[in-house]
Amino acid sequence: MDTLLFALFAGIAILSAVVMIMQRHPVSSALALVGVMGSLAILYLLLGATFIAAAQLIVYAGAIMVLFLFVIMLLNAGAEPKPLRQSFLARALGFPLGIALIAILGFLIQRTVPPDSVVVRFADAKAGSPQDIGRALFTQYLLPFEVTSVLVLIAILGAVVLARKET
Questions:
Q1: Domain range for residue 156?
Q2: Cβ-proximal residues to 74 (8 Å cutoff; 6+ apart), any chain
Q3: Separation of alpha carbons 118 and 121, rounded Å
Q4: Does residue 164 contact residue 75 with C-beta atoms inside 8 Å?
């Protein structure tokens, strides 16, 4: 049953990611990204990582997506215009080369991962509790955490500066 649910939600995540890339309107892309993040949260639940699944939904599908939509609305980004002409070479070679890339990556992953390796369930691990994650985040990973928060602040300020109307 776990394998079937994994395949279902992995497929939904991949399909949502493809839709996100193919959309021309940024709000539609952001909503497709919510589908990706929701599917990832369910995959975390299947692995037994309930706290990480809840954090995925609350932080990423909630707060970060609100921030993305706020920036999109603030920039008044419309739909991306269609190109006048598409390159014949890009249309002819894009799909076969994409399939070849996926095949090569699949082959490399199959060769590097031993066939008898077992995925360790997060529920069996002792380091997945909120207390352990918080302790690691604010001790061992404090610098990357603070650098990320400063980068998000700079991105917000940059969006405000770009969207500000000249008076």
A1: 126-167
A2: 159, 160, 163
A3: 9
A4: no
pLDDT digits (tens, 9 = 90+) for 135-159: 888 899 899 989 999 998 998 888 7
Predicted TM-score (pTM) of this structure: 0.63
Q: What angle (nearest 5°) sits at the alpha carbon of residue 15, between those of residues 7 and 18? A: 145
What's 63's domain CATH number?
A: 1.20.120.1200
Burial of 54 (C-beta count, 10 Å sphere; 0-12/13-18/19+): middle
Between CA 35 and CA 45 the distance in angstroms is: 15
End-to-end CA distance of the chain: 61
On whether both 19 and 81 belong to a single domain, the answer is yes
CB 79, CB 70: distance < 8 Å:
no
